[in-house]
Amino acid sequence: MSARPASPPPAPRRGRRFVRPAAILMVLGPGLIAANAGNDAGGIATYASAGSQFQYRTMFIAILIIAALVAVQEMAARLGAYSGEGLMSLVREEFSLRLGTFAVVCLLVANLGLVVSEFAGIGAALEIFGVTKYLSVPVAAVAILSIVMLGSYQRAERIFLVLSLVFLAYPIAMILSNPDWVHVANDTFVPHFVASRDFLLLAVALVGTTITPYMQLYQAAAVADRGIGPDEYRHERVDAIAGSLFAGFIFVSILIATGAAIGKSGHPLTTAADAAKALEPVAGAGAETLFAIGLLGASMLAAAIVPLSTAYGLAEAVGAERSVSRKFREAPLFLGLFTGQVVIGALVALIPVNLIDLLIGMQVLNGFITPVILGFLYVLTNRPSAVGLGVNGPRFRVFALICVIVVSVLAVSAFVVTVAQFFGF
Predict the structure, then answer these.
(1) 5 occurs within a structural domain
(2) Would you say 44 and 293 are in contact if contact means Cβ atoms under 8 Å apart?
(3) What's the total number of domains in the chain?
């Protein structure tokens, strides 16, 4: 007669569970990096211009944009985790080749313009500290190439996360600007729209600079490159949502800082460097320095992420090897495309060209491609053939559809208005 198995030891009493800070930091990765990369030089200039022109009146719009950003970035992360592939890989498998090629070509041209603007932002930030762009831009280009070409994905990700910490300069600048918090809260929770063409165009610009195609491409591709699967997705979901919320917090910090310091001027700001200099008379040299440091970190991060997203997208579209952890001989197209964008972007940023015209052209192309990329993302996350059990739930499907439609309409509106202005209408 066999002996009865010993009874299992009593389960330990469960007390209150605390989440260690180290555990939280281990979760952060592609979500935080992708969302913060959206707060690039052009984004900072747009947020600062919103504060300068309309003080806090765009705060209500900012909250809606942040909600849409959370939904879009969560879908991109889930796509990468449940499919094990990037967005363009699934587009190649699920849609026609012509449609996928069209999207990639538009993305390549638009992102190259963005890379130029990021290096211009690096130069502008360090010029505030007296460093010429002819030194800062080449050094930054070499540093970015070294981070990606000479390391693994894990090492590059750690460096990108450190760069993301620089964004904490903006909340400090916001506090130094001494805003009227009652006024801020009132404009945040009660819509204060302005019946003017400039207000409408700025609202469109805020959407376009906060939710851009390269963020979704990088998010999905980086999750797949990191090897995150369905079993680990609950951690990545935290990363995607927390990253988007943190990026949104930086967004409103910039808006509030400039709104408090120069919000009664009513003048638009053309560059992020102008915003840093404009804060000094009201908030002191400390705010200007913090703003410049934030601009430098933001531009460095985006100058790496934007070309990476393009390289991921094109390599995925043709089925080539793509990973930051690969050597050049193992992924020549992926790493070659990344290198080419960084080199060209840095060189063009050193040429005395009209960067405003370049940014306008970039906005036209982004307005063209944003609805396409978001449409792909929404359809794919509804297809079991693409994401298996990771499809959108019924309620989230409705919410995500509303977000995609609104963002797409605003992106197309920006495209139409920009073209009309170009032809003098």
Answers:
(1) no
(2) no
(3) 1
